[in-house]
Write a structure and sequence with these properties.
single chain; alpha+beta; Beta-Lactamase; Alpha-Beta Plaits; 13 helices; 10 strands; transmembrane helix; PelD_GGDEF; GAF-like_dom_sf; Polysaccharide biosynthesis protein; PelD_GGDEF_sf
């Protein structure tokens, strides 16, 4: 409803033009009185009868048009009665008869007006309810369209990067990634498709800077692609995700490609092992937010490929922490994603307790490892996607947990050292310092 289009109130079934209303009042009254003069000329007003039949006129008029019309009709009947008594000088004016005529019409008119007001009130409530129902229906369909569009926009996404990466590691860790073959390529393409809703895509191996024409894994009608494709060349040169969104305006005359985007799989050491070439995906997914998420996930996939092939000294937990730290640092440099490294040094008798409590509080992406340096062992924790406020909240929860479980204060037996990761080199230096302290 707007001010330019106000709602139109439908006419009441009893509404009638004014001329018709008063014509009916006059006609009914004249007919009622005239019938008495015609059928009973010796007593046309039924003054001597057991029932005052002229009361029918005000009664009918009152039921039809309400109090005022009934009053007018009754007054007409009373005027005729006064005229009749003047003609017959032997009779006095019948005041009781007149009061009955007047009361009969007015009661019927008031009855009609009362129920007409109730009817109008019910009609107004019904009109308001219908109007609100129409507004609700429009809002519902608008919300449904918006909700469907939002579902499409976030299709396959859990709503957070943390949850997406957690699912990625949960699925890919179920298989041994000792070598990059068709099986692992198919699994990785499936994960990327879940979040990008690819309709036609493939993962192509990269060897000595050249992209293989035949894919390791393909989806849809993707069969092969030329290594001279402009998007693939730009992706290999820049070693970053490229799409027609970013390259179309820069290379309008040179951009002859069937691809929408090319996502390189580059690990934290800078090794390019494969690319994901996308030919078709829904328009609502082809946006910077989705492409950014896919680029981050592709980097983590590349790390999982190279993690077991690299030679890192230390336990498996320490190796995992080092690899994840390098990836977190690279994400901080490229995508400005926060990450934090935390080290808590304790005495050897308290190490098991601290490790147990910190392990119990691990989140989906956190990586923990224990280092020992003579009499100064420590627990090192990597917290991806965690800034200074997140670190403060974690330490507060850890302190409260230890206090509730042991009755001790954390800082009475532990010493803290933390690093908010901004660059890859500072993270590597920090981890190297931890190892050299041993």
């Amino acid at each position: 409803m707007t001010l330019d289009n106000p709602p139109v109130t439908p006419a009441s079934p009893t509404d009638a033009p004014a001329w018709l209303k008063w014509a009916e009042v006059l006609l009914v009254t004249v007919a009622s009185v005239g019938a008495g003069f015609w059928l009973r000329p010796e007593d046309p007003l039924h003054l001597g009868n057991t029932f005052a039949w002229p009361a029918i006129a005000p009664l009918l008029v009152g039921l039809r048009y309400g109090f005022f019309a009934a009053l007018c009709s009754a007054l007409l009947v009373l005027l005729v009665a006064g005229w009749q008594t003047q003609l017959e000088l032997s009779q006095s004016y019948p005041w009781g008869w007149g009061a009955g005529i007047l009361a009969c019409g007015l009661i019927a008119g008031e009855f009609r007006d009362y129920w007409n007001r109730q009817l109008e009130r019910s009609r107004a409530v019904n009109e308001y309810s219908l109007q609100r129902l129409e507004e609700f229906t429009r809002s519902f369909y608008l919300m449904k369209v918006s909700h469907d569009r939002l579902e499409q926009q976030l299709a396959g996404s859990s709503g957070s990067l943390r949850e997406a990466l957690r699912r990625l590691y949960a699925e890919l860790s179920q298989t041994a990634v000792d070598d990059f073959d068709d099986e692992h390529a198919t699994l990785m393409l499936g994960v990327l498709t879940r979040y990008g809703q690819f309709q036609s895509a493939a993962i192509l191996a990269v060897e000595q800077g050249q992209v293989a024409e035949q894919p390791l894994a393909a989806l849809g009608d993707f069969e092969s692609v030329s290594g001279d494709d402009p998007l693939i060349r730009y992706a290999l040169e820049r070693r970053t995700l490229v799409s027609v969104q970013t390259e179309y305006r820069k290379h309008l005359s040179k951009l002859d490609t069937e691809l929408l985007a090319v996502i390189p799989l580059i690990d934290s050491a800078g090794t390019l092992s494969a690319v994901c070439a996308v030919k078709a995906m829904p328009f609502f997914n082809f946006q910077n937010r989705t492409l950014r998420l896919l680029a981050i996930m592709a980097g983590h996939m590349a790390d999982m490929i190279s993690q077991r092939q690299a030679d890192v000294v230390g336990s498996s937990e320490w190796q995992a922490l080092c690899f994840q730290s390098r990836r977190a640092a690279l994400d901080a440099e490229r995508f400005d994603l926060p990450a934090t490294l935390l080290r808590l040094e304790v005495a050897e008798p308290d190490l098991a307790l601290l490790e147990e409590r910190m392990t119990a509080m691990l989140r989906g992406l956190d990586v923990i490892a224990v280092t020992r340096s003579g009499s100064s062992p420590a627990v090192v924790l990597l917290m991806p996607l965690t800034d200074e406020l997140g670190l403060a909240g974690y330490l507060q929860r850890l302190e409260l947990d230890i206090r509730e479980s042991t009755g001790r204060v954390l800082w009475e037996f532990a010493r803290k050292d933390a690093l908010l990761i901004h660059q890859q080199q500072e993270a590597l230096n920090w981890l190297l310092q931890v190892r050299t302290d041993e």
